[in-house]
Structure formats: structure tokens, C-alpha cells
Amino acid sequence: MAMRSWVESASLPGCDFPLENLPYGVFSRAEAKHIGVAIGNQVLDLHGCAQSGLLSQLSSNTIAACSQESLNALMALGHSAWSLLRQQLTNLLKGEAEPDIQERARPHLVLMRDVRMEVPALIGDYTDFYASIHHATRVGKLFRPDNPLLPNYKYVPIGYHGRASSIVASGTGIRRPSGQTKDANSSEPVFAPSRSLDYELEMGIFVGPGNPLGEPVPIAIAEEHIFGLCLVNDWSARDIQSWEYQPLGPFLAKSFATTVSPWIVTLEALDPYRVPAAERSEEDPAPLRYLATEDRSRAGVDVNVEVSLQSEKMRAQKINPVRLSQGNMRDLYWTIAQLLTHHSSNGCNLRPGDLLATGTISGPEEGSEGCLLEMKHRSQPVTLPTGETRTFLEDGDEIVLRAYCQRPGVPRIGFGECVGRILPAL
Q: What class, spelled out in words, does domain 8-117 have in CATH?
């Protein structure tokens, strides 16, 4: 049964942020950055709560972490501190809270529309994986029709080290990148604005407590090192990528921008939506021992993800964004625990606030592709309500990623939106 909050908007049908969610983010207002928690259509200012004594039952470390300008210090504290804070916030916001508690907390609520959301952590490192076998297979077929998956795919969670400095908050404009490209019929490359700009629908994994250099994180405790999940759009310039990626992988085709959603949903909030890891066929190899999860029955997460597009012409005609595709995180070949464990398996030290992304999330059926490149297998390009068509993104296109968990009898848990609009190249 759903809990009720005295914040009325948290109990409205379809609300992304009910009392059972309480995701963390960082917002700015009057030039100050504070940690906040989403509740309905409002943000609870944890700095204000800490200063007014509403968090006094918690440890001094937790109170200090809630007063910072980023989530890194809170991420470092670990699951027990997170759980106690979550319980304290639930007690403050639940409908049964004492009237004096409500009155003390009410001044620390601000409408979401009145704040600017920031990148929620100081991200020291960013790694992008390739965890969807459906995405890997579709893309592989474009280049290797008879052998789309390379021999290592079902053994190794494939990833590359991305650029943390160009991670931006939802709503930030995305400048079309320029770079070297080479057409198949040209003898030499040219330097020019990308003509094959794409989005990638992904989920992000924010690291909590890190691990010392040289000490891998065992799979059995990998999720204790995960603070929560968010949406990620890893923008990609496909024409730049196809020319540069051999032999060392993506570089400038990816480093120009990555957009993250503002709210980080905790694993505790997602607990009702844990599902079995994606089934492997009988022909697939078993994961190597260090990646083998004893209980795969709750290793996956049932998160619906979708992407919509609104062109400049659609905005002028007041036409809402049109959904291009929809998938689910439960279809990933590699689980979030396996991604984190593999990343640390060579002794690499992860740190609080590091971001791991799943890679493009796609399903097996048409309509579940997580990027435009994948849609090349369709017989027709994407057609918009204005009659415009898309094989790749045009200037003025705005991409909106959304994610949510929803099932009868269980409160909806939403992630909000991850938005970016394409600006012309300089």
C-alpha cells in the first residue's frame, strides 16, 4: 500500500516522486548550491533541514554531508548512513508527521520550477559500458552482418573511459561537434561539423564508497558500492566515430558532451522493482567466477526507459515531443553489480561520485532501439508529425529521455527527465 505525504503533489497519480522515492539531487537558487530531495513537485532543501535541527538524530558526518554543495560526501558514507537518512526524511514528510514537524520542514520546501538543477556530484571519472546485447547485435550487423558480436562480448563487460569534464546537467544545450570524417568514396578525411549526430539512451550508476587501489570489489558486495541510478544521454557523432575508433575505440566522437538527469534514485527505492537478470541462452558461456552472482533472481532492475524527440518545427507548431522508442533496463546482458565488479577487477580504485553508464539500452523487438544508428535496420527513416524525417539529429532537435518503474500494487518510482537540445556548430 502506498504511503501518503503531507506534500499533496507527492500523492497525485503518475507522480514520479512519491514518498517511496526520495531521490537526491543538487539545486541552485540565489547563487547557492544545496543538496535536495525530490518530493512531488517540490524539493526539500537538506542544507536548511540540517541547519534547523531537523536531522539532529543522525550522525554528525551525515549532517555535515547534507550541508555540502555536492553529493560526494554523502555518497562516501555508505548504505547504513543512507538508510538512516532516508528513514529520517520519510518521517519528516509522511502524512502522519506531527504538525510541528510539518511546520518546521515546510519553509525548506521549494517548487522545482523555481530552482535550477545541477550535475549532482563532482564526477572524477566516467566509464561507459556496452551492456545491451540487443544494441551490440544490431550495431554489429551494420558492419559485420555474418558475425555481429565479437568473441569477447559474452565474457567481458566491454567499456571505455569517457570524458568527465564534459558531463552536463539536463537542459544544457548540446553544441554540434566538428571533427575529422571520411566518406567511403573519399581518398582523404575532412574536418567539418558532424552530419551523423546521435543520442544514446542509457542509465547511469553513481559510485558510493570507493575501494583502495589494488583491492577489487567482490561481486557479492558490489551493490554496497552503488549510491543510485540516473538517466544518461551519451551523445555520439557517428561519422567522427567511424573514422577514429580503430584501433583504440571512441574518442572525440563521444567526449564533446554527455547529459545526466538531475535526480539519483537509490537502490533502496528501487527494491520493489528488482527482477531476475536477463536470461542467457544455453549456448552462452557462464560468467567467469569473479562475475558470477549467487542469486540472479534479483540482479536485474525493472526500469522502463524511453526517448522522445521534438524538432524546431514541431515547437513552432506547438506539437509535443513524439516518442521514438521504449526499452527496459531488465534486458541488459550485464547487471549493474557485474559492471562495477569488472571495473574494479584489475585493482582499479573507484571513488565516490564516479559515474558508470550502462551503454545504450535496447530490447529485442522493433521500437526498443536505444539510438538512431540502430534504427538503420528499419526500411524507412523516422518520420515526425510535421512530415520531417530523421536518420540522425538536426540542429534544433530536442531529445527527452524518461525512466520510471511502475507495476500494479507498487508505488511508481520515476527518474524525471534528461533533456538536451542540439545547437549549431561554431
A: mainly beta
Please give the chain's pLDDT, 426 residues, in tens. Answer: 679 999 999 999 999 999 999 999 999 988 899 999 999 999 999 999 999 999 999 999 999 999 999 999 999 999 999 999 999 999 999 999 999 999 999 999 999 999 999 999 999 999 999 999 999 999 999 889 888 999 999 999 999 999 999 999 999 999 999 999 999 889 999 999 999 999 999 999 999 999 999 999 999 999 999 999 999 999 999 999 999 999 999 999 999 999 999 999 999 999 999 999 999 999 999 999 999 987 899 999 999 999 999 999 999 999 999 999 999 999 999 999 999 999 999 999 999 999 999 999 999 999 999 999 999 878 789 999 999 999 999 999 999 999 999 999 999 999 999 999 999 999
DSSP 151: T
Task: Report the distance separating Cα 9 and Cα 6, nearest Å.
Answer: 9
Residues with catalytic function: 135
User: Judging by DSSP bridges, how do beta strands 126-129 and 355-357 pair with one another?
Assistant: parallel
241, containing H or E segment: helix 238-244
Q: Could you state, in order of their start, the residue ranges of all structural domains in the chain?
A: 8-117, 126-423
What architecture is the 126-423 domain classified under in CATH? Answer: Alpha-Beta Complex (3.90)
SS3 label, residue 110: strand
CA distances from 253 to 111, 240, 257 (A): 37, 5, 9
Beta strands 201-207 and 355-357 are: antiparallel
Phi, psi of 38 (to 5 degrees): -80, 130
State whether residue 221 is helix, strand or coil.
helix
If you count them, how many residues does the chain have? 426
Angle at the Cα of 228 (from 294 to 417), degrees rounded to 5? 130
Instruction: Give one DSSP letter per residue of 38-105, joined into a string.
Output: EETTEEEEHHHHHHTTTTTTS-HHHHHHHTSSSSHHHHHH-HHHHHHHHHHHHHHHBTTS-HHHHHHH
| 3-class DSSP assignment, residue 403 | strand
Asked if residue 303 lies in contact with residue 261, where contact means CB atoms within 8 angstroms, the answer is no
pTM: 0.97
